[in-house]
Write a structure and sequence with these properties.
alpha/beta, six-stranded parallel β-sheet, elongated
């Protein structure tokens, strides 16, 4: 992918947790810039990254200079942000999968989903040095806000009871809020020493935890949400290879079975881990190409 400018604000880049992933995995290392310098734009499209209120005046200014605008819109997991500015952009790439937006004729079907990705510092990880399942001490781990009353379909509440029932098969470290309680070093160390990582919904079914787990070589566990099975979202480069439970009530028994399998047939667990690692690597490559192709078509 050719490198083009990603214009943003200090507020957005300071608040976003996944800026390395966006810059390097999605946009091929394109540099971040503050403000618009017409002399540096040339005829290339401009990527405008926004986490907060979309700056319509900035979009119009860039277009007045003769450049196409690619809006990379982060956040909006509850679909509570004003997205009317999408209509003024040439391409919109947004986190969180809502078919109603992707297919909205008002936006001319120019809205593309992209994953929010892993937290900066959790990754990037070289797949060659990730611990194999046989080298990991914990069967599974969950670090995070287990009592999030605003979670999608109250999923954290439905996860809490089964999580407690898992006993020693699930290492739990609850925190007091989103991204609160544990620094990235401790979080990463525990996750990369765990084979499985349950990923219950946060404010949205799509959580940063899922991408953290994949980047750290864990095998995620989730419920079968739309973004996981849609070809317009995470299944765009092949079906997800990790386990999807119908209910979190299945988790205790599932982990018992995985523990038994780890003893009786450890290669099966290792093969599942390797499938997840390879699938995630190929997904990232495919996603970057898909975005590059969409930008090249402008």
């Amino acid at each position: 992918m050719r490198k083009i400018q990603v214009i943003s604000s200090p507020d957005s880049l300071n608040a976003a947790l996944e800026t390395w992933f966006v810059q390097n995995e999605l946009f091929g290392g394109s540099p971040y810039s503050f403000g618009v310098n017409p002399a540096q734009l040339g005829n290339e499209p401009v990527i405008y990254l926004e986490l907060n209120q979309i700056n319509v005046d900035l979009i119009r200014h860039i277009k007045s200079l003769g450049n196409r605008v690619v809006l990379y819109h982060m956040g909006g997991e509850k679909l509570d942000k004003d997205i009317s500015a999408y209509a003024e952009c040439d391409l919109v790439i947004r986190n969180y999968y809502f078919p109603s937006i992707i297919n909205d004729s008002e936006f001319g079907k120019k809205v593309l989903w992209a994953p929010n990705g892993f937290r900066t510092g959790v990754g990037p990880r070289d797949k060659s040095v990730l611990k194999k399942s046989s080298q990991r001490q914990s069967l599974s781990a969950f670090l995070g806000w287990i009592n999030n009353s605003a979670s999608y379909n109250n999923e954290r509440a439905s996860f809490a009871g089964p999580a407690a029932a898992c006993g020693e098969n699930l290492y739990v470290m609850p925190s007091n809020g989103f991204a609160g309680g544990y620094n990235v070093g401790l979080y990463s160390a525990i996750m990369e020493d765990s084979i499985f990582a349950p990923c219950p919904s946060g404010n949205n079914p799509e959580t940063i935890r899922l991408y953290d787990a994949l980047e750290l070589g864990c095998i995620p566990i989730s419920l079968p949400h739309d973004f996981l099975v849609s070809k317009a979202a995470l299944a765009s480069h092949g079906s997800v290879p990790f386990p999807l439970l119908e209910s979190w009530s299945e988790l205790p028994q599932f982990l018992i079975e995985m523990k038994e399998k780890l003893i009786s047939n450890p290669n099966e667990i290792l093969e599942l881990q390797q499938r997840c690692i390879e699938w995630w690597l190929n997904f990232k490559i495919g996603m970057q190409k898909k975005i590059a192709d969409c930008i090249d078509d402008l």
